[in-house]
Amino acid sequence: MMLRSECRSTPDLLPTHHYINHSVWLLVVLMLASHYVIYSQYILPMGARIEKLEASHDSCLKEVQRLITDEIDVYDADKTNSTDYALESSGATIVTTRCTKSYLEKNIQYSIDGLLPVFFTSNSPRVVIQPSMTPGECWSFAGSEGVLVVQLSRTIIPTAFTYEHIRKELTPDLHIDSAPRHFRVKSLKDANDREGLLLGEYDYDKDGRPLQQFKVQNPNPVPTRFIELLIQSNHGELQYTCLYRFRVHGNKY
User: Fold this and answer.
1) Are 170 and 120 spatial neighbours (Cβ–Cβ below 8 Å)?
2) Are residues 118 and 212 in the same domain?
3) Would you tell me how many other CB atoms lie within 10 Å of the CB of residue 103?
4) How far does Cα 17 stand from its chain's mean position?
5) CA–CA separation, 243 and 253 (whole Å)
6) Among 51, 128, 140, 165, which is most exposed with the fewest C-beta within 10 angstroms?
7) Angle at alpha carbon of residue 200, lines to 196 and 203, rounded to 5°
8) PANTHER family given for it (predicted)?
9) Is 59 helix (H, G, I), strand (E, B) or coil?
10) Which of 178, 184, 162 is nearest to 242 (CA)?
11) How far apart are CA 183 and CA 100, in angstroms?
12) Do 172 and 227 fall within a single domain?
């Protein structure tokens, strides 16, 4: 009797199972539909935006790389990324050295990469405003004090000066005692101006980088086309001082 009762009760449960199965499928369909809506409305547009961002990122990266390359090219051209208005090939000239005497001895020796000896020969003061930085290509004057007046390629308001000396590794005894140490820079009204306007007093560090830049210290520099460089001491050499590359930077006037 119990078996019959169980058999009779089984058909009564079928509608319930069908209802549950239908509900489950409906729930699955709704979940899939909601996922599709989320995917179509959010995921796909987000993917497109990501692709645009990646493309934009690549474009920005290329632009940054181009700018860096351009800056390196400009720096490599003159190492300062600033116009040199004292450059001879641009129109600047050496006007006078006042009474400074060139050192004519030929016993100053340098070396290239520590191997090939290069003997100093007397050079014109013009080498100071020329781009060559070959060992020995400097203006050597007697003693530790000297003057150089440069007529710039155009009238400017000075903002900075750069002095560059050869590396001490290029000398036989690994020192550059003949390099200038303390110096002053003035702006002049003309080549005959003996007073001038002091733009700053500086010290070249022989143990620092070969190329060192110095900002104008005078808060009120005036437009000028004449710059006077006054060397007041060197780093210990008693017979002579060697001047390599001197640059003048500023704003056009």
Assistant:
1) no
2) yes
3) 20
4) 79
5) 28
6) 51
7) 130
8) KLAROID PROTEIN-RELATED (PTHR12911:SF8), SAD1/UNC-84-LIKE PROTEIN-RELATED (PTHR12911)
9) helix
10) 178
11) 15
12) yes
**DSSP readout, 61-119?**
HHHHHHHHHHHHHHHHHHSSSS--TT-GGGT-EEEE-TTPPBP-----EEEETTTEEEE
Are 50 and 116 contained in the same domain? Answer: no
pLDDT band at 23 (very low <50, low <70, confident <90, very high): low
Instruction: Give the integer Cα–Cα distance in Å for 119 and 44.
Output: 74
Predicted structure pTM score:
0.68
Residue 236 has pLDDT above 50, yes or no: yes
Domain of residue 49: give its range.
22-76
Reported as type and span, the H/E element at residue 122 is: none
Q: Is residue 196 part of a domain?
A: yes
Q: Which two tokens stand for residue 102?
A: 């060139």
**pLDDT by residue (tens digit) across 159-218?**
999 999 999 888 877 889 999 999 999 999 999 999 999 999 999 999 999 999 999 999
- Locus of tokens 């005692």: 177
CA–CA dist 108, 115 (Å, integer): 16
CB 184 within 8 A of CB 172: no
Q: Are residues 183 and 62 in the same domain?
A: no
Helix (H) or strand (E) holding 45: helix 44-78
Share of the chain above pLDDT 90, in %: 54
Q: What is the pLDDT of residues 97-121, one digit of tens each?
A: 999 999 976 545 555 555 555 555 5
